[in-house]
Amino acid sequence: MRQQKLLDDSDLLITCLQCYVVKTPHHTIMVDTGVGNNKSRSGWPSWHMKTDDIFQKALNAAGITFDQIDFVMRTHLHSDHVGWNTRLENGRWVPTFPNARYIFLRTEFEYWYELNKKSSVPEFADSVLPIVEAGRAEIVENDHQIADHIRMLPTPGHTLGHVAFAFGRNKDHAVFWGDLMYSPLQALYPELSGSMTPIRRKPPSRRRAFLERYCDTDTLCCTGHFVSPSVVRIRRKGSGFACDFLQAQ
Ligand SMILES: [Zn+2]
Q1: Does the residue 126 lie in any domain?
Q2: pTM higher than 0.85, yes or no?
Q3: For the chain, which has fewer Cβ within 10 Å, the N-terminal or C-terminal residue?
Q4: d(CA 180, CA 143)
Q5: Domains in the chain: how many in total?
Q6: pLDDT at 118
């Protein structure tokens, strides 16, 4: 375990964007798909129309190719979690992972579907709908399981249908919690909500209960935005919780 620097020299939070690949005995699963390339994201200058090979290089370094992914799961459908769902090919958005089934939680999917009908939501239009049109989408309820290794844990707050994923047979060896928290500061002070959190009534109780569930266990908590390497274990600290970061490999 080691101490992580959480703030930069201007006292702004240091964050990063994480995607994870998990290999179970039966499947290779992508959890969250980052920002993506060639996407019009005018509100986010560093994401807007970016073209880099960071994502593909990282996958390849882990010995994984796009066609080896069996399932794609997203904690929620914000633009920094759905980007690599699709890639641009001959002017069309096509599934990045051609053999994968893309799992969508119904609550989250329907919320963005209805919103996009009223006024275009770019990340839904270019990163979710093409998956449906390609016949690769599977819209599921929140008690959905994949084999006996993967369970969904509803964590509404950051979005209406935000969900965490617990991986492991008979026990949660690892949990992927997306944007339930952006920073270890929110573990220490679970009632602290970020400006990106729209449903202010919900997160505190969910977050504290979630931290209690994993406190003083050996479950690996794989976060969406904690400073790299972004994987922590939880222990109690005062009236809140501390995050012990795993060493980067
Ligand atoms: Zn996010």
Answers
A1: yes
A2: yes
A3: C
A4: 19
A5: 2
A6: 96
User: Separation of 19 CA from ligand 1 center, angstroms?
Assistant: 10
- Centre of ligand 1 to C-alpha 225, Å, is 7
Question: What's 27's domain CATH number?
Answer: 3.60.15.10
Distance 75 CA to ligand 1 centre (A): 9
Cα–ligand 1 centroid distance for 178 (angstroms): 7
147 C-alpha to ligand 1 centroid (Å): 27
Structure confidence by residue, pLDDT tens digits, 182-227: 899 999 998 887 665 555 555 456 889 999 999 999 999 999 999 9
Amino acid at 187: A
Q: How far is the CA of 155 from the centre of ligand 1 (A)?
A: 14
Mean pLDDT of 96-104: 97
- Within a domain: residue 157? no
> How many angstroms is it from 83 CA to the middle of ligand 1?
11
For residue 78, how far is its CA from the centre of ligand 1 (angstroms)? 7
Q: Determine how β-strand 163-167 pairs with β-strand 174-178.
A: antiparallel
Shared domain for 46 and 103, answered yes or no, is yes
Cα 14 to ligand 1 centroid, rounded to whole Å: 13
CA of 80 to the centre of ligand 1 (A): 5
**Percentages of the chain per state (helix, strand, coil), in multiples of 5:** 25, 25, 50
- Which one of 140, 158, 180 terminates a domain? 140
Report which of residues 8 and 166 the model is more confident about.
166
Q: How far is the CA of 179 from the centre of ligand 1 (A)?
A: 5
* pLDDT greater than 60 at residue 64: yes
Last residue of a domain, one of 123, 140, 157: 140
**pLDDT tens-digit readout, 144-189:** 888 888 999 999 988 989 999 999 998 999 999 999 998 999 999 9
174 and 85 part of one domain: no
Q: Give me the amino acid identity at 207.
A: R
